[in-house]
Structures are given as C-alpha cells and as structure tokens.
Amino acid sequence: GLSGKLDLWIVRALLRQLKSLRIDPDSHPHYWVNLSGVTLGDGKFYAELTNMLHEADLPAGVVNFEITETAVIRSVNDANRLLDELRARGCGVALDDFGSGLSSFGYLKEFMVDRIKIDGMFIRDITTDPTDRIFVKSIIDIAHTLGIATVTEFVEDDETLELVRSLGADFAQGFGVHRPELLSQLAEPAAQRPSEYVGTR
Q: Does 153 qualify as catalytic in the annotation?
C-alpha cells in the first residue's frame, strides 16, 4: 500500500532537485516519471500531485508522466481523469509498455496520450525477428495516424537504433542511446556532458 506515497516522494524529490539546479528554462531537459497503477483512482493523490506541480511553476513539458498500459486497461475512466489533470498543469503523458495488453490498439482511441512506449519484448530481437519488425512498424504507423509520438524501449546497440529509426520511431531509450547519469551532472557545462539523443523526427 505504499505505491502512492512512493510516487509522490519521487515527484517531490525531482522537483526539489530541479529547483536547486537552476537550469535555464529555455534549454531545460524533459523528465518522465513512472506512476504506479494503484494511484489512478486516488483523488487525494491527484490533489497532492497537482499542488506540487503548481508550486514548482516549471515550464510546460519539463515534468511528464508515464502510466503502464495494463494499469490503463484496468481503469480507463480514472486514467483519462488523471490525463486531464496533468495536461492542465502542462505535463505530457506516455503510455508505457505498449503492446503487452490484449487490446492495445483499441485503447489508443479511448486514451489519447502524447507518446506511447513500445514494450521492450518487441525490440530485444527486432534485428533478427521479422515478426517483431512488422509488429513495431504497425504500432508506429497507427500511433502517427492518431498524432501520437513513439518511443522504442530496450535499444541496446547501434544496429537496433538504426533499425527503429528506419521504421519511423520518434525516440529511443536504452543503453545504446545513453547510459544513466546523476541528475546533478546536468548542472555541469554542456561541453563536459555526454551528448543527448535527439528524436528521429
């Protein structure tokens, strides 16, 4: 029963660190925070989360959120209410682990998000498995038809990165793109930081 408290603690810690870094708002990176599915129907959670975002007063799009597809399937109405709350605060919303549910494509029309993250199980073997390539290409094409950007997970090497780029993916995530680093490193001069991956479109 601690998932909601952990979610709020993570958001609070992130907002506190962003305030202390004092990064130029015009060049601020975008951050994506995973929310646990149990918080979707929690009105108190909504109130605390939106209050923290209001007090932080960050530029729109700096702090964004990811919700797993399975959590959305369990409660589409609650998920849509959370989406409305977050968008009112200038936050983007991504549907995480897309493709793992039984009715994935149908939910895209009911739950309009800014991005979908294609589940890593379809990316791991994409360079050798033609079925995975067809599946991923289908998700990307349908998402783009609906005006939704796509993120491919588990991009672990250059070959995979080039392939998902050729399929039309907008963004990629994984060790083949960038290794994890401390948030405090963002305060370093740009010349001292590793280059960041930019979307394919």
A: yes
